């Protein structure tokens, strides 16, 4: 797939590099030539341009892109101007980065209904981890439901999911288990993680495994507190 990422700050560059590593064709643009040069070997295509310049933006293959992501963060004015320009050029899929409530309101007024709030999401995930030491990571699916990565409660170690009966007891669904192990790469010991695949009734909950569970946060917390 082909993506265009506009803005190569910390978020934009990370997104563009990851998409490239996943095998997608990525065109990334930023007005800072130094940043563009630094990333030219990590991203499919990089270009230095002012993304609020209509002629410059029109030179990009907008119609061929599966999505154009406006990743500009610090300069909200440039972000909104860039988004408005893309809207005028009838780009089929625009994803905007939001850093303030006002910016979100303006995007909604422009009928941009697909946006990301990376700082807020990261803060929410950190708050979840700080609130409960047994939560390793989290992802909010909706106001009610979340996906949480947590340690296997001690009382269920050695049991199968069928015997543990977590769905009936806590109204949560175990999606998979994750194993953590150490490996040596270039003489350096690093920690690796590997999911065991879709969990089934015969999946055994082993010590030091992590559970990836889906459900209402209150029910997931009851499971965590059952240790």
TrEMBL record:
It comes from the Bacteria. It holds the Pfam family TrkA_N. GO terms for biological process: potassium ion transport. This is Trk system potassium uptake protein TrkA. Residues 1-117 form the RCK N-terminal domain. InterPro entries: NAD(P)-bd_dom_sf, RCK_C_sf, RCK_N, Trk_Ktr_HKT_K-transport.
